[in-house]
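Quick note —
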Amino acid sequence: MENTIDHGAEPPRFPCIETEKSLSRAQGLLQHLQGHLPEIWMRDIGKKIEAELNETRVTFHEVLENHREERMRLIEAASSPRVI
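Predicted structure written out below.
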């Protein structure tokens, strides 16, 4: 029998995925807000915040990739019918 993962039995949310989504939403909201900031210094600060958010997303993505095998093992364990 082939060892497959039943993705339908996975928990609906994983903190790491939710964190990545939140970072993405924050970055999108900031990009929208920057078009409406009245002062140049506000836009400059917004650009710095956006750069920090982008760096955080890139770094976090690297962490997720480095721990991919462990995450898949946990998903498999959580979706296994043997879990009590």
